[in-house]
Each structure stands twice: as C-alpha cells, then as structure tokens.
Amino acid sequence: MNCRRMRLGMYYDALIKKMKDLEHRIEVDYQRLCTSHPEWDPLKDARLASVTMLGYALVQAWLGIGFLREMLDDAWWTNNTLFGHDLPLKKRTPLMAHFATLVRHGFGTAVFARLEAPFRIFLRELDAQACNGSSAGFQSVYRCLLGPNHLDLGMEEKDTALELLEFFRLIRNTIHNDGLHWSNDGKDQPVTYRGQQYTFQHNVPIDFISWELLLTISDDARHLLIQTISHDKIARMSHVEDPRAV
Q1: pLDDT tens-digit profile of 7-64?
Q2: Which of 166, 201, 179 has the alpha carbon at shortest distance from 100?
Q3: Which residues, in sequence order, are bridge partners of residue 98?
Q4: Residue 5, in any domain of the structure
Q5: I want to staple 45 with a disulfide (CB 3.0 to 4.6 A). Which of 40, 103, 112, 188 is the partner?
Q6: Cα separation, 245 vs 234, whole angstroms
C-alpha cells in the first residue's frame, strides 16, 4: 500500500473515489444541459461535445492508473512479453515513477485542452475577428472571451475565472517543459490559487503538481466550462459547430 502511495501521490482508492465523484458531477452537468437544450446535437455541437471530452480525460487517466497499479505486481512483469521477466527491480522502479508522472501530467494537459478548445470555438462564434480568429495565445483568448466585449462576467466571477486560468496555464506550460518552469524575463512567478500562494521558479522543477491539486483544478475547470456554456450569449446560439466532430 505504501508503494501505491509512493507511485500515485495518494492512496489508490482515495484517488479513484475523487475521480468518480468528479465524473458524476460532469455527468449531472451534461444531463442538465441536454434537458435544457434538447435541440443541441450531442455529437456535433461543441457545447455538449466539450463536456463529453472532459469526461473522456478522466477515463483516459483511469486507464493509466489501472495499468500503473498492475505494474506494482511482480506477476505483471513476469507475464508481460514486451519487457520480459528478467528486468531487475532497479530498472522497473524509475520506469514506474516516470510512467506515473506521465499519466498525471497527461491528465492535466487533457483537462486544459478540454477548456482551451471550446473557449477558442466560442470566441470565434461570437467574433470571428477577435484575437486573430481565436488563434492568438490562449491568455489573450480567454481574457477577450470573458471580458466586457463578449461574456462580460461580473467582477467576482471574472476574478475567480482568471485566477484559475492563469494558474492552470502556467501548470500546462510547465508540463510541456517536462516539469521545468521557464519565464520570459528569467524571474520567478508567484501566483495565488484558492487562497494559497504557489511559486513557479525559473528553470527549476515544479514539485506541487499533485493528483489532488489537479483534481481540484479540474473541478473548477468543469464549473467554469459549464458556466460559460450556460451564459446567455453562448446558450442562445442555435448551433455551435464542433470542428472535432467526425
């Protein structure tokens, strides 16, 4: 059990419960949107598809966590023909540690993408010229979308949204740099999220991107996504084409 905690950063059962609770909230949100807007096509409308894709990010993480749990069992290595039974423990340990990080960071990146993609789509639907057709940096896109010219969120709602997005954006960028933070000016960047300060030190590995933090961020991202989809300017559109639809 201690080994499982070492690999996942928290106990397996506790982690899965938190993920299932989040999945339930996503499903409740999805059903509420379907009931309120039966005219939206769940396969082609970006509003519903984005909620579905957020749920998929959880499922993908479950698969990785389940695989990691199997890797803790010696029998998996014995029976697996790809690696063979002769791989010593000293080589397995770093492989499992790196795989655990890959699954966790992959989950964070997937959730971020499920927020970034619909925000770009929504801004383009509202104003095809804004932010170079929504192709500008994401910080410019979300500030424009939530700002006075478009969704015009109230001050408290906007501050909460920007706090989340700024923090999550830095985490995503850090993940893309393999856990290192790089700032344009070479200075450390302190940010506050949910009343706690985090410091992104320049050219230093970041050690606070835990499962617990990512699940908290993901739930806030879920809330922001639903809040945005439910905004009158977005909800009243007859159709929002999802370019990802096949």
Answers
A1: 555 578 889 899 999 999 999 999 999 999 999 999 999 999 999 999 999 999 999 9
A2: 179
A3: none
A4: no
A5: 40
A6: 19
- Counted domains in the chain: 1
Quote the radius of gyration of the chain (alpha carbons, Å).
Answer: 20
Provide CB contacts within 8 A for 8, sequence distance 6+: 15, 65, 68, 100, 211
| 39, part of any domain | yes
Can you tell me the mean pLDDT for 203-224? 95
The answer to whether the CB of 58 falls within 8 A of the CB of 50 is no
Range of the domain at 96: 14-235
Q: What is the 3-state secondary structure (H, E, C) of 178-202?
A: CCEECCCCCCCEEEEECCEEEEECE
163 is a domain residue: yes
For residue 164, which of 195, 206, 123 has the smallest C-alpha distance? Answer: 195
3-state secondary structure of 35: helix
Q: What are the φ/ψ torsions at residue 202 (nearest 5 degrees)?
A: -65, 130
